[in-house]
Amino acid sequence: MIFILAKQDANFIFFKCILFLNYSKRIFYCKIAYRCNNIAIAHQFFKENLIMILKTIFLIYFAFMTSVLAHSSHKKTLKAHEHGVGVLNIAQDGNSIVFEFEIPGNDVVGFEYKAENDDDKAKVQSALETLSEYKNLIKPSGSAGCVKESSTANIIYEGNHSEFISEYRFNCENVSDLKIIFINYFKNLKYSKKLNIKIAGSNKKSAYVIDKSKKILNVKGHF
Fold first, then answer.
1. What single string gives the DSSP state of each residue in 125-187?
2. Structural domain boundaries of the chain?
């Protein structure tokens, strides 16, 4: 929302452009409204500032479309994921550490289509219950005093593909003392072969690819 205020004698002109932005539908809608004590002054204001107003709206529209394109280019497509390869993003937020897993449906339940029969639905429900418990995938070492604040587990679909997303947030009493993360991921996901890990700590950023032989992840110096 943009406000432009002009004053002439005792008369005030309020001009506002209300923007409705919708990234998913790529909608840009600008509603112009004004209030003035003198209609003649209002007409004169718009006449003198029309080019400026149009330029402002154009610049906002240009910025919006640029943002939409950037947003679209970063949108993940499930068709691009690789069966047998999961993703773990580890990010630090002050004294909090967030673990986010992105796992192809095939790696979790053995199929990617949307469950229709009772047997497949039971597999999906069981998988969500497994992913809801962080200890089934990872466990921070006790040295940092990390306590779980929240955990979520969901499944998303796109065409004939599916992906399980789980997130675990921990608050750590001594986050800088977090040096080891135990990996239980492969123990509970028998179809998965590799795990791409990205760590974004306040002191260090790293990327690793591990397989079933890796049981411990060294994160010393990251947080």
1. HHHHHHHHSGGGTEEE-GGG-EEEEEEEEEEEEETTEEEEEEEEEEEETTGGG--EEEE-HHH
2. 2-74, 78-218
List Cβ neighbours of 65 (8 Å cut-off, separation of 6 or more): 26, 28
Alpha-carbon distance of 199 to 206, in angstroms, equals: 5
Q: Look up tokens 């002109």; give the residue.
A: 13
62 contact partners, CB below 8 Å, separation of at least 6: none
- pLDDT band of 18, cuts 50, 70, 90: very low
pLDDT tens digit string along 67-105?
555 544 444 566 567 899 999 999 999 999 999 999 999
The CA distance from 44 to 38, in Å, is 10
State pLDDT tens for residues 168-178: 999 999 999 99
Residue 42 phi/psi, 5-degree rounding, is -60, -45
Q: Which secondary-structure segment (H or E) carries 102?
A: strand 96-104
Q: Which residue in the block uniquely carries the two structure tokens 């919708």?
A: 22
CB 137 within 8 A of CB 186: no
